[in-house]
Amino acid sequence: MGNVGPTFTDCSLPLGEFKPLDLEEFRSHAHQMVDFIADYYKNIESYPVLSQVQPGYLRSSLPRTAPYRPESLETILDDINKRVVPGMTHWLSPNFFAFFPATVSTAAFLGEMLCTAFNCVGFNWLASPAATELEMVVLDWLAAMLKLPKSFMFSGINYICVQRTGGGVLQGTTSEAIICTLVAARDRALEIIGVENMSKLVVYGSDQTHSTYTKACKLAGILPGNIRLINTAVDTNFALSPSVLRRTIEADVADGLTPLYVCLTVGTTSTTAVDPLSQLADVAADHGIWIHVDAAYGGSACICPEFRHYLDGIERVDSLSLGPHKWLLSYLDCCCLWVKSPSLLVKALSTNPEYLRNKPSESYSVVDYKDWQIGTGRRFKSLRLWLVLRSYGVANLQTHIRSDVRMAKMFEGLVRSDRRFEIIVPTRFSLVCFRLNPSFLRSGPKRIELLNRKLLDWVNSTGRVYMTHTIVGGVYIMRFAVGATLTEDRHVVAAWELIKKGADALLKL
Amino acid sequence: MGNVGPTFTDCSLPLGEFKPLDLEEFRSHAHQMVDFIADYYKNIESYPVLSQVQPGYLRSSLPRTAPYRPESLETILDDINKRVVPGMTHWLSPNFFAFFPATVSTAAFLGEMLCTAFNCVGFNWLASPAATELEMVVLDWLAAMLKLPKSFMFSGINYICVQRTGGGVLQGTTSEAIICTLVAARDRALEIIGVENMSKLVVYGSDQTHSTYTKACKLAGILPGNIRLINTAVDTNFALSPSVLRRTIEADVADGLTPLYVCLTVGTTSTTAVDPLSQLADVAADHGIWIHVDAAYGGSACICPEFRHYLDGIERVDSLSLGPHKWLLSYLDCCCLWVKSPSLLVKALSTNPEYLRNKPSESYSVVDYKDWQIGTGRRFKSLRLWLVLRSYGVANLQTHIRSDVRMAKMFEGLVRSDRRFEIIVPTRFSLVCFRLNPSFLRSGPKRIELLNRKLLDWVNSTGRVYMTHTIVGGVYIMRFAVGATLTEDRHVVAAWELIKKGADALLKL
Prior knowledge:
2 copies of one chain form a homodimer.
Chain A: H1 23-43, H2 73-84, H3 106-118, H4 129-145, E1 167-171, H5 174-193, E2 201-206, H6 211-219, E3 227-230, H7 242-254, E4 258-265, H8 277-285, E5 290-294, E6 319-322, H9 324-327, E7 335-339, H10 342-349, H11 359-362, H12 382-416, E8 421-423, E9 431-436, H13 438-441, H14 445-461, E10 468-472, E11 475-481, H15 489-508
Parallel strand pairs in A: 2-3, 2-4, 4-5, 5-6
Antiparallel strand pairs in A: 1-7, 6-7, 8-9, 9-11, 10-11
Helix pairs in contact in A: 3-12, 4-12, 5-6, 5-10, 7-8, 12-15, 14-15
């Protein structure tokens, strides 16, 4: 059999009564943990942003089996400080400028504490009415802040038949939002063309669409050869071209294939490109394609009137997802999905086992969110976002977005002021894409890429700043993403000084 | 366009500086929340277990839009108490005996606080080495507690090539575990039979397999007509029959179809049936079928030697999932998945966008968990389970399982002592399946079902206990699931007294 490990029964010392939720212990330990966390936040700048450990560092320092007897909280917290923290890349550090930062706030932390504490499972309305109803309220609130059309909201709901309205739901990640809508679109299409024709379904995106899109399509049974990721170029700032999309679709139709779904992006991962929704919706509508908008990052900015135009045309798409964990201070993981026709989701995703049957569900007077998602169980997730929206108000959230954008513009200005560097695409949100300037370096592409790589590696190796890179249009660029919650002007300025220092050393070689 | 909602810009009062993570505010508010939660736990028995509100109760009492200006924590907590709590079904109530309870503990709460607070995103090793490595350690620890064979563990890992070992990963839910393994199996099969033959793939389970299985199969592009849910019966205690599985598979092969995947269950939702793994593995192995074991509920009991035999044969399956949020005190959501060939998961689920490329990943010396799951982002989820295992030790966790089983047996004894009731299947874990006894009632099946329904409805309408029902083999039964963390003997006894009182009133009519 190859069984391993100890028998866990060889110790016969008395252990006393076991109360996993003793209320006085809960209270005192949780207070202790609050202070531990507040101290971590206080000291966060003292840690290297990017962890400098080697693979295997932790496994080799921990026991190979769980303890048979309890250990004290003090011992565990000591291990967290000595063994875990050194191996963390500190996403909340104000010097974290990598990927897109994952933003946080006191209000969201409190909301998450509550969600955990209640531990109610809202797979259907009856299993926890408040969990379902608060989620509907919060998704409508955020929809209104984004000025989404009513067709995405529950607000017109009547409790005779909730299935006739649009509405929103919280998913864990954009990946789940895409899979759920894709499968809804797929099953609608298969009803028309027949399940035996699944191999004819074709989906569209651009080469800048998030990598999870391809994975989601493959998960849903779309043939890899039927996933079209259309090339973009610097002349459109890496946005998807409506005319190229049209040509691609028409070629597929001519080949006897069935165009199914297109994923458009508001704020791509590499460069925050924005696909032109209105024009692309024109193209897709002509072919009855399900249009999804992935606004994971850029969508949050659209709560400010000056950014809302990026969602122009949204009334013509089928679904929209947005990740408040990226830019609305909400901790991971939190993805909002709005759909115009939840009934299509429900059709594709509903289950109705006897052990979950109940009168409210059968009266069609309630929303059962299990039928809007991949899994069955679900937490009381809306509390977190509800606390953020109420504790800060729309006004402060707008201030927060604008502050990040202002800092990014400041960084862009610093880069532009140094002729050794160039900006690759105009800074639209809070990401700055730049590199060492070829016209200054006067070198071939390979050497230019090598120098940029070296500069980035050096900056990250200091542990004082963490930035990441990408390659677009064949060009290696550095990404400076402003937005960690604790970042202030001084951190941005210090990061720039560090980058300049690296360039000084590198270009003297 | 149909835009709605306020403009959110009509208020021009000064708001002051906005600091979403002010450390002193964080500390004081989080302490306040700890006390709020501890008080909720203290008062939990005073609330009706099953919420008695009507659909729409909350939506109609909340504003239609988010506030423009901040609201105080006091106002929000007051709303939680007055508006949210009354609409909750209290899963943590000691009088919650519905579904399977979702268990909790102080240690898991602390672990979740830490996970939230760190907010590090461990999509690949470098993005947070400690998050990846601790997860590997914790999954190995739990594997050893379950006496899983080494083929499911990282323990044999060498850091030259990690891809050659088995290992575990944390998923959100069983649904995700099933989808990931199913897609790994699917893609392996399609390599052999060709992607154009996806419609020939057939999957197997029983009519007791969790409802999410069918959904997962449909999501992965398995034709609904190719999902075989084999009937079970009371004479095998609702376990899947190896001989019937063999006949079903052979018929499909004879029809030119390709058997792909079978989901076996250790502890079904309706009655905690256990499929006989060894014998079923014999059948499946003959046809090269991927064997998954869903031990969401029953698996946790197998940390006790006296229950371990339910996993006999586990060395011959391909993957195993288990939900510590069900019975290992871990809060939602937490599902462990172990696989023998992670490389097949990675092949099906990997993404490699430029913006995530890094040296450790390219050296193949590390695990990148994004390639073991549906989405990209992931939290530092192992902290919660790590704190549970260390804070309590294996000994206390075994005590906890045994205590729940003991209370269920006690309830079973009470039911058996009353000739008006009957036990439907022997109580194996901590779920008791029972009903009003037909041989006492001397009525037809319809009236017997009606009386049982009425009894359950009455019990739940009191708000003093919450139980659920199921139908197996055409028979309506009540499920009494012991296991809410705060439940003590006295709650079980009181629930039985209430049920008897209901029966008294009902049978006098």
